[in-house]
Each structure stands twice: as C-alpha cells, then as structure tokens.
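Hi team,

Filling in the usual template for the complex we talked about on Friday. All components are listed, including any nucleic acid strands or ligand strings, so the model treats them as one assembly.

SUBMITTER: L.P.
PURPOSE: interface mapping
COMPONENTS: two
RESIDUES: 650
SEQUENCES:
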Amino acid sequence: MSDTTAPKGKLKSATPWLIAPGVVWMILFLVAPIVMIIYVSFWTQSTFSIDSTLTLASWKNFFSSEAYVGALWTTIRLWLIVLFLTFIIGYPAALFVGLLVKSKTVSTVLLVLCVIPFWTSFLIRVLAWRPMLGKEGAINIILMKAGIIAQPIEVLLFSELSVVIGMTQIYVVFMVGPIAFMLGRIDRNIIEAARDLGAGFGRIFWKIILPLSMPGVVVGAIFVSVMVLGEFATSGALSGRKVNLLGNIIVTQVGSLKWAMASVVGVILTVLLGIVVAGFLRIVDLKREL
Amino acid sequence: MNQMNSIFRLEGVSRQYGDVAALDGINFEASNNEYISLLGPSGSGKTSLLRVIAGFEKPDSGRVWFEGRDITDVPAHERGIGFVFQNFALFPHLTVFENVAFGLRNGIKEVPQDEITSRVFEAIEMVGLAGLEDRGTEQISGGQKQRVALARTLVMQPRLVLLDEPLGALDANLRDRMQTELRAIREKLDVTFLHVTGSETEALAMGDTVAVLDAGKVIQSGNSSEIYDAPASPDVALFLNRFNLFDGVATGTTFRGPFGQVATPVVRKASRDVYAIRYDRVQVFNMGDAIPGPALDARYVASEYLGSSIMYFFEAADGKTVEAEHHLSFGDPQDYKVGQHYVLSWDPAQAIVFGQEGAE
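RESULT (copied from the run log):
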C-alpha cells in the first residue's frame, strides 16, 4: 500500500510549489499594484508634489468635474457602440468562416487572413486610418472623383466616428475568432436534425446556432470590452483630442504627475471592467464549455 | 409491389463524390408500413442513400418519389421524412422535453401549445422515458439518448423514418433490446422504417425486407430468408458472413475447387466462379473416414463458443480460413486437436454455386 500511496503523497506536497511562481508573480505585478493604486487614490495631491496624507479630495474632484464624469460616459458609450458593431460585423463573418465553409483548411486560412492586420504594429494600424479618413484622404478623394460628394466629408477624421471606425476595425477580429471557434464545434448532424424536423434556416439560427455559439460571443465580448474600455491610443490618434476616454485621462494625469487623480480613474476603470466581465460571465456558464 | 402500396421509390439515383460513385443508378421501391433494412459494408453508399432520401444531399441524377410525389427538389425541412442519426445529434442545450418538442415548435405547421405538450409526453412515454422530461442531454445514458432521438423523430408522425446505423453506438446487450423495441414501435405506428446497418445479423433480424447495397448499387432485395437461403451473388453471400466461399472453375454441371470436382445441379449467373457453402452445413470428419461428397483437407485452428452453437475454424492448404458451425442441439461439441488435419465435407445439394456461364 505504501508503495502506491507514496507517489500520490509526493504529488500532493508538490502541488503548492507548482502554483507558487504564478502566485508570486500575480502578487508582485497584479495585486500589489492594484492595492497601491487604491491607496494612492486617497493621497493628498498638491500642484507639484504628493504626500500620503489620506483624503477624499481626488475622488470628490472626479465626481464633481463635468469633464471627468463626461469621460466616463463617453467611455461607456463608445464601448457599447464598438461592442455592438464588432458583434454585428463579426458574427456573420464568423458564421461564414466557422460554419458555412465546409473545408476545415479553407476556414483556417480565412481565420489566418483575419489576423494579417496584426502583423503590423498597433500604432501603425491606428495611424493608417489618417490617410484613409482625412479631408484629403483616400475615401474623400474616391467619393469626390466618383462625383458622389462635392465637398470632402470632414466628420470622417478627428471625430467620434473615426474613433469608432478605428476601434471596430482593430477589435472585430477578437469577436470573430472565439465565435468562429464555437461555431466550428457544432456537430453538423445537429443542424441537419433540426432541418429534418422541419425547421427553416431562420429557426435553426435562432434556436440552435445562436444559443450554441453564445460562449464564443461572450468570450469575444469580454476580449473586446477589456481592450476598448482601457483604450487611449486610438482615441488619442484619431479623435484630434476631441474624444476623451478614461484611458486618455490617465495618460494626461500621469503626464502632469497628478498621481492621485490618475489612481482614482484607474480604480474606476478597474471596477467598471470587473462589473462588465462579471456581467458577461453570468450570461453563459463558461465552465461547462472548458 | 403495386403503386398504391409504395411509400417511396428511387429512380436511377446517382451521386458522385469526386471520382467515386457513392450511388450508382439506384432503383428501389419500398412498400408502405414495413421494416426495411439496408445492409451494406462501409463505403457501400448506404449513408449517402439515406441523405439523398432525407434531402440533405441532392442526387446528381435520378428522381426520388415519396408518397406518389416527386420530392427530388423539395428541401429537407419540407419533406416530412424522419431521420435518426447514428450519433443521435440531440440538441445539447435543450432538455429531453424540448428536444422532442423541437419539431412541433419550429416546424412548418403551427401546432398549439397544449397539443405540443400532450404529443411530446406521449412520444416520451412510448419510448419508455417518462419521468426524464426535464433532464439535460448530458444527464442521460447512450440508450436513453437513442430513445430521445427516436421520440424526437416519431413525434412528428412521419410516414417514413430513416435510421442511420441507429444501434451502432450502443453496447451489445442494449442493441438486442432496442432491436425488439424498434420493431414493436414501428408496428404500433404503422410507419415505414428504413434501417441502415453494416451488421448482417441486425439486417436479417430486423427487416421485413432486406436490401443489400454494394458499390452504390442495390444488388439484392427480398425478405430475410430469401436473402439468406439464396444470395443472388458472391458479394451478397460474402456480406451475409454465413458462407464459406471458394474460388474455382465452374463448368455447366461441375465445379472444381480446392475440395476436388463436385457435381453442381444448379449454377447461378455471376461475374465470377464461386462455390458457397453455409457454415452450419459443413461437417468435420477424421482423416481416413469414407467421404461421400466433396473433401477438403484442413488444419484445425481454434473454436469459438457462441452459446447455442460452436464455431470451428480450420485452415485450408491455400491458407484460407474455413468455418464450420455446430449447433449444440445436434449433439455435444467435438474436441479437435489444434494443428491436426481433418477433412471437411458437406452435402453438395446444399451448396450455392455461382458461375459466369450460369443461368440467370
């Protein structure tokens, strides 16, 4: 007996050591910084210095400032718009790649094609929208040459619209991937069974395909939400400073050494992300799918 | 088979996958209210045939008739033909009740809610799953999944149900029980079942009519005893897995094989010369015994106990395995010595002989 239990016992005592590096890493680089940010958000900020006297001043400052609260709403609004657009654009694409393409090879090739934009850097991808959307950019030139418009459309660049276009283009692939993966896992016989029972394509989509792909939608939505809510680069590069997201505020506050206010915004952003992710996880029991 | 009584009819149905003809000009007619089993080795096109009848695939040529109507161009969801999948294909996110109710809720015809409820309960009751309505599909066993799949199809009251190796995923014990139940359920409902299988015992046991499919063609169809007693070709005899088949040369009246030259009263027309003798017709003699008929020298290899009978395996001089089945009701099993030579013989009148020069 002792022979058979010994390795098991050894394994048991080794288990904590297996997760130790991860735990240490997470404490050092995740838990400690978050605790620090929460702590710093209560520090006293003066123009050129900061000291650790606890105060609610920065928090009061945030919620009484129209600009800051406005940024919170802008962030939420843009997040919802981009989330909606990535879903609306991404789902049909995923449906095609994951379900309608019969050959697994073709569907893999199509998925790889989706990530080709990622072969270039994030900043380039964002900045590339400027010559596309600008007043003398590609879209305006084409539309004018084609005689569809007489004046260049100015709202295309340095507006909320350009930020939405930029973010949707960058993040849509994170929606396509997980959904296509879930759709690819659906047993084709199930769909045929539904057809055999008399259901047309619409019924099959709403009653079978969509529910079975929900885990993919939720994972995709979490990816997109986490990235969009923390965004600052796209809005910085494409909005002409007209659109301020929480991320942009953190950047400017840190830039002017306003650590306390940056921490307040950081905490708010973290809480917001937590609520959003928890909300999505309530929709689908992901544990069942893993 | 008259027109009135026919439930479906295939007219020269062909289906090609690349260079391979899965279905090669199939003509087949099935009478109403029957259990038809379709026997074929894997790759014989039996699943393709079901998929064409169900409408999941279109034939390259030929027509499919169902209840007197040409349904070749009717989409699957408008055909009203039931299909039971080999892997059951239950909807994994729905309960047993909702799985069975799916067709009633989402089908072409609008069905009132209380009728849905009563029909679903009735169907679940019929397949013996009463009480499991609220279970998820992960919370029931393989046999129960099979029953849900069946109930889900039958609740739609189809006139024709296609079953694609429905018992293939079940263990042997359950398979036997489901065979009986499938037949009983079919008789109660007055529908036609077309049951595809690769198992010759299953096909012979279940089918009122057995159709044998090979290389995309129906090579024989008839009732079980017709098929069993009079296979139409060497291939049918091979699929039945009940015959020793010997190659040789058939002349009009004799067959020369590894067992010598034997007189053959009847030779059936076939593409090659084959001598077939059923396992249970083969008798084992000791070397030196006086043998009246054909005599095949063979080395004893092993035996297999089958309950009501015992199967002896011999190896002939050319390395071919020859099987002899001994029914235990005809006496106790013999002890043969492994490696020792014996003589196998049989009554030549019981052999089935195929020859290129035979009669049609």
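MY TAKE: Chain B has a mean pLDDT of 88. The first helix of chain B runs from residue 46 to 54.

Thanks, L.
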